[in-house]
Design a protein that fits this description.
D-Maltodextrin-Binding Protein, domain 2; four-stranded mixed beta sheet
Length: 294
């Protein structure tokens, strides 16, 4: 049994596929399958059961994967700490971001991070704030860039505020309110809305504001994608409440109108509260430097 075999087992369990696991490990599927078969012979236990559609861990496999995951993480941490002692940052930063992040220019900050630490890689994933917070708590993500309503803080993780922004109304250029200097939520109650799915942190910002104002609205369209929401707005099918930077990305196809009593969104950087990895600390330091220089 060696560390590489443990990595293969963990990747197969995460991917539920020998093919995808081999791609992630940059080896051929036959080489990965051979190593796992050798490990199974050594253990005298089947770790995975293949079907025509997927791969699942056996009971013995689930128990083995749990320990293998700890061993792989410990080996990676040992390598990273040894490199850090020599002044280098190595490994893969697992970065999660919301699709509507505006406080950070994500491509630019990743570019600066890679330039500062040429031994580091970045694995980027996109999701809603709730899923990203859970990923940080589980240790699946090192750092997450979030957006939450003003009265909610990330739970169970360490976090710091990156920016506070009041949402604006996104409307089509032909909308009667498009030329207004500013409006109030009550001016939008007769409009059809496009918003993020009910129950998500992105949706909670607008829902909370309308509830606090004692108003109701018609959310006829739900989408995980801000681009799709803005497409509905541009087509004149709906209005929405979004961060100003998000609306600006749509260009002239939509108009941002200030909403005096609109909801405030707070963007955060979040990380594991107890055991942030060296590579996470290096990325957070770069974010702090950006904040000081802006």
């Amino acid at each position: 049994m060696d560390l590489q075999q443990l990595r293969y087992v963990v990747e197969v369990a995460d991917a539920s596929s020998f093919t995808r696991a081999a791609e992630r490990c940059h080896v051929t599927q036959s080489a990965l399958s051979h190593q796992i078969a050798a490990l199974e012979r050594e253990l005298g236990q089947r770790l995975f059961v293949r079907s025509s559609r997927s791969v699942r861990a056996t009971e013995a496999g689930e128990a083995f994967v749990a320990r293998a995951r700890i061993a792989v993480a410990a080996a990676d941490a040992a390598r990273e700490d040894a490199a850090a002692a020599g002044g280098r940052v190595v490994g893969t930063l697992r970065l999660g971001v919301i699709p509507t992040v505006t406080a950070v220019d994500v491509p630019a900050v990743i570019s600066r991070f890679r330039a500062a630490h040429d031994g580091a890689r970045v694995e980027l994933s996109v999701g809603n704030s709730d899923a990203l917070i859970a990923g940080v708590r589980r240790g699946d993500l090192d750092v997450a860039l979030l957006g939450l309503r003003a009265d909610v803080r990330p739970d169970g993780v360490a976090a710091r505020v990156l920016a506070r922004t009041r949402l604006v109304a996104a409307v089509a250029p032909s909308h009667p309110l498009a030329r207004s200097g500013s409006i109030r939520l009550a001016d939008l109650v007769d409009d059809t809305f496009a918003d993020f799915p009910a129950g998500t942190s992105g949706r909670a910002q607008s829902d909370g504001a309308f509830a606090a104002a004692g108003l109701s609205r018609d959310v006829a369209f739900e989408a995980d994608s801000a681009e799709l929401i803005l497409g509905l707005v541009a087509a004149g099918l709906a209005v929405s409440l979004l961060a100003p930077g998000v609306v600006a990305r749509a260009g002239a196809s939509t108009v941002a109108v200030a909403v005096d009593d609109g909801p405030e969104r707070v963007e955060y950087a979040a990380w594991h509260a107890q055991t942030p990895r060296t590579i996470a600390r290096a990325f957070l330091a770069l974010l702090s430097d950006d904040a000081r220089s802006s």
